[in-house]
């Protein structure tokens, strides 16, 4: 429990520091500090696969979302149909990455990556789709910076979380029956055969 508190406090400090240093890191960081830190913290703390596999899946989903915006800017119509096609393509790429690696790159981490890019860039893209080439790298850099800080703040806690969950699952199991417990069986009392009394 102590490590959970420390990791959460460190994550809060990292996100706050990113906002305070937005003058140095870039004004875009201020708007995505909470988004990036929260998604990065979830990526780092989740007890599933190795940290490298989780990060690789996150990067794949992030890239898939960037490709979706590229298609919207270059080929798809700026209408509901075009956005729907982009969303479908992004999610199918995430699914293909997870299925192609047989789950070694978890789907949930790829979806986190796609959500990070979409959450950081959708507003800027909607405001000016023609500026995709210049605005998308700025948004991507800002959210990746804060997400990376979130991962570093919580990654060391992941093994502890996995151990705690395994212990909780073990405690939740019903007690096993005692198959080898010796049972006491009362021994039959000895008896003597009935002897009729002699007649007088």
Short recap of the structure:
The chain has eight helices and no strands.
Report on the architecture of this protein.
Helix 1 runs antiparallel to helix 3. The chain has one domain. With 200 residues, the protein is mainly alpha-helical.
Topology record:
Blueprint: H1 2-20, H2 22-25, H3 27-45, H4 51-74, H5 80-100, H6 107-127, H7 132-154, H8 158-172
Name the descriptors.
mainly alpha, elongated, 0% strand, 200 residues
**Biggest beta-sheet profile:** none
How helix-rich are the residues, as a percent range?
over 70%
Beta-strand share of residues: under 5%
Distance between the termini: 91 Å
Q: What is the H/E order?
A: HHHHHHHH
Number of helices: 8
Overall pLDDT, averaged? 82
Structural category? mainly alpha
Poorly predicted regions are none
| Total tally of structural domains | 1
Shape descriptor reads elongated
Q: How many β-strand stretches? A: 0
- For this entry, what is the oligomeric state of its chains? single chain
Radius of gyration: 31 Å
């Amino acid at each position: 429990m102590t490590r959970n508190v420390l990791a959460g406090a460190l994550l809060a400090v990292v996100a706050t520091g990113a906002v305070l240093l937005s003058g140095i890191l870039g004004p875009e960081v201020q708007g995505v500090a909470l988004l990036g830190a929260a998604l990065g913290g979830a990526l780092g703390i989740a007890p599933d696969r190795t940290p490298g596999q989780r990060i690789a899946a996150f990067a794949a989903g992030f890239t898939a979302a960037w490709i979706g915006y590229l298609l919207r800017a270059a080929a798809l119509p700026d209408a509901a149909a075009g956005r729907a096609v982009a969303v479908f393509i992004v999610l199918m790429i995430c699914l293909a990455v997870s299925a192609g690696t047989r789950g070694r790159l978890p789907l949930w981490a790829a979806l986190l990556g796609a959500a990070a890019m979409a959450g950081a860039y959708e507003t800027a893209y909607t405001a000016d789709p023609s500026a995709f080439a210049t605005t998308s790298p700025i948004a991507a850099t800002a959210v990746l910076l804060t997400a990376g800080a979130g991962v570093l703040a919580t990654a060391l806690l992941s093994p502890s979380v996995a151990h705690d969950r395994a212990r909780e699952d073990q405690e939740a199991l019903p007690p096993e029956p005692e198959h080898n417990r010796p049972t006491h069986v009362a021994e039959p009392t000895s008896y003597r055969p009935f002897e009729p009394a002699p007649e007088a």
